[in-house]
TrEMBL record:
Recorded GO MF terms: calcium ion transmembrane transporter activity; manganese ion transmembrane transporter activity
Topology term for the membrane: Multi-pass membrane protein
Subcellular location per the Swiss-Prot or TrEMBL entry: Membrane
UniProt record similarity statement: Belongs to the GDT1 family.
Annotated keywords: Membrane, Transmembrane, Transmembrane helix
Protein name: GDT1 family protein
GO biological processes: Golgi calcium ion homeostasis; Golgi calcium ion transport
Membrane-spanning segments: 39-58, 70-87, 135-154, 174-194, 206-224
KW Transmembrane helix (keyword) present: yes
CC annotations in GO: Golgi apparatus; membrane
Amino acid sequence: MTSIAQGFTKSLAMTVLSEIGDKTFFAAAILAMRHPRRLVLLGCLSALIVMTILSALVGWAAPNLISRKWTHHITTFLFFGFGIWSLKDAIFGDGDAEELAEVEAELDKDWKANNGVKKDSSKVDDDLKKQQRPFLSQFLSPIFLKAFSINFFGEWGDKSQLATIGLAADENPFGVVLGGILGQALCTTAAVIGGKSLASQISEKMVALSGGLLFIVFGIQSFLSPVE
């Protein structure tokens, strides 16, 4: 139980500090302003849960493919690397609103391409129809698929995904999955409910600084802990 609790706590803290102010966080906030929140939340959460489980499975399998000693050292290196990376972003970043503006510009371009010829009334009617669909059929909704794909591919190869892999290789994978899913749920729900107004108030520098320090702490703890 101690191992599960430790993996859960580390994963939860890492996920929250990695995802707040991340591109997928901003994407969820902006999508929720333009589409039914329920569909956006379902799509984003589904993608992030799938990604968390896949990452944990890769991390769990890693010690079976290479020695636990090497996976432990690689994980320690990743924690220090991500910590330095985050601290660099916090110190030398170009501004808090840069990533939000970048995500909004990308979604605006896609929005205009897909909806430029539609009237406002038809868009409202279309959204109302989607809200009235049976629950299971909503998983085939274009809005659900859009939210899912943006978050899934946005997380692929991201710092938080690689950190989850490393954490699952060094901690109890079940605890890592539970902590990761809870962290993703908290961040995504906050983004969907708070929308752009909440996203624009977040200081990316402070989040990056906190995340960087957390990764450094994880790295030190991993470096000092013996290989089991």
